[in-house]
Amino acid sequence: MDLHLKNLFGRFQEQFGSGPGLGPGSGVCLMKVEGISSNMIQSIFRASASLYRSEPWKRLRPGHLFGVRVGKDSDWSGKRQPFQCVQFIGGDGGDIAIYMYRSMSYALKMTDGDSWEMARDPNVEVFRVTYELESLMLPSNKRMVKSLSLEVSGTDQFPIMDVARCMTSGELQFRSPTLEELRLVFAVMKALSLVHPLLLQEEKQVRGLPRMIKFSPFIETVDVQWPSEMGKGHDFVAVTVSHPPGQSYEQNREDDELEIVSGMTA
Fold first, then answer.
1. In this predicted structure, what is the pLDDT of residue 206?
2. 3-state secondary structure at position 204
3. PANTHER family under this entry (predicted)?
4. H/E segment holding residue 69
5. Alpha carbon separation from 195 to 56, 146, 192 (Å, rounded)
């Protein structure tokens, strides 16, 4: 009986995922996003595959939050970047994904440190990039992958992108991302794949959270090249990634100066 239950749970886990996230992708097909082009979808899948190959989930857990700033606020409708905080999901097992929140405060509402569970705070929107096995994808996404010859992430996974909203009932409501949101996530994925390997692990780790590595405060800006279909008159955009969110270059320099002074007086 125990062996039967183990096999049953294994099949359930493979199909529906597990871990601290909000579950598997909703099956949203990017081909249905109004105004999207085949070239844009191909560029997004290439960026997603690049991030996957950089293997951030080996070190990063849901408790590690990153601030991201892409260009200027004036570059975005409403004069504000739609999603500004990033979280990596699945490093401890389950569905591999990245989640983007509108602010750090929303991310903290949904995250309980290194807890396996994720809270569902009402009316919080989460942009999700969930890597899904090709065998489990909906037919519409399988057709899209085949017809556009989209780049695979790893050996047999592809990104499913949607925006999830937590309802007061505890259920999730899904919608397709907008063109602007997809443009944002492209730049964020390209930047993250470049900068997350630069994180330096601190010797003193998080007390009571042995699975969660503590990193030194970090901020880095990289130039991401826009594909021709996303550029809007500009070839490159500056993307700043910080950990924890809100870290500034001034603060980073002050921390370095304190370390130097401490070393001189020791």
1. 58
2. coil
3. MYND-TYPE DOMAIN-CONTAINING PROTEIN, ZINC ION BINDING PROTEIN
4. strand 65-70
5. 10, 31, 5
